[in-house]
């Protein structure tokens, strides 16, 4: 180990600088002084005999060698975290960590309920919920930073061979209106009525907006004809705007249960149309699977899945756990799972 030209601390510092964009912010995020960070980088560059940063600009920019070291360094740090979690598992759910990922809607309205149920059964397990875009979440699962995730968008094509992707549940999208809107008095409305409404929507570049547009298109609803009067950056803001009478919106039914119960929003029925999208469960079958993740998959996931959800693929993957290394993968006996 003494022959290695870098330490784990130096890799952590390199990663922090790349993420934060400056030595100062990296030092703040690691709770160390900026001179300490600079000294570690200088030592690392001297040990490797290559410059890792271009120091001409205001933002810390990695050189080609810096990018290469960061790429391998992230893999090394990820495996270190995986190792620690595997050792924690020896305590048999009397500790350890469960890391769950989600896209925005599932992370805001579905996963907190699931995690709450899990915490009631296993209060000693630390649970982390990472809510990001579908793309970022999928990469986190692929890299072993997240145990499993439930997402509503499309998986990046380059990850299709790395991830196990299982249809998990159907998420219905509801048309919500102010309770005092004229259409709220109707038992049903027609597709053509949609083009008479003023809509409130998420930003056109958001993943959720694109998914909603795709689902509506499959139902032969042309979202290009919608009169989008306002774009907001969160589902909560959209619900509040609709409640205030500023327009209509399509949102997940999981996001409006409370408002419907309170009678502050109206959910309109569209004749002959049920707008649904598939939620996907994703995990990396080639990564170590903690006991906490197994318990969550076995005891919590089925309670929120589609009726008759088939767990065979998930169970099979759990019985063939592998621990990845930089050179490949070493299988662990299925009897341990």
Q: Provide the β-strand percentage band.
A: 15-25%
* Topology, number of strands: 13
Low-confidence stretches: 316-337
User: Whole-Å distance between the termini?
Assistant: 32 Å
Series of secondary-structure elements, N-terminal to C-terminal: HHHEEHEHEHEEEHEHEHEEHHHEE
Rounded mean pLDDT score: 85
Rg (C-alpha, Å): 24 Å
Q: What is the 3D shape?
A: globular
Major sheet, described briefly?
7 strands, mixed
* Tally of helical runs: 12
The structural class is alpha/beta
Q: Roughly what percent helix?
A: 40-55%
Description of the molecule:
With 337 residues, the chain is an alpha/beta fold. Helix content is 40%, strand content 20%. The chain contains 12 helices and 13 strands. The chain has helices at residues 8-20, 23-30, 34-48, 64-88, 104-121, 134-142, 207-218, 235-243, 257-262, 291-299, 301-304, 312-319; strands at residues 53-54, 61-62, 97-102, 126-131, 148-151, 164-177, 198-202, 227-232, 249-252, 266-268, 276-283, 322-325, 328-331. Strands 3, 4, 5, 6, 9, 10 and 11 form a 7-stranded mixed β-sheet that branches. It has a two-stranded antiparallel sheet with strand order 1-2. The chain has a two-stranded parallel sheet with strand order 7-8. α1 (8-20) crosses α2. The longest helix is centred in the N-terminal third of the chain and has 25 residues, at 64-88. The two termini are 32 Å apart. Residues 316-337 have low confidence and may be disordered.
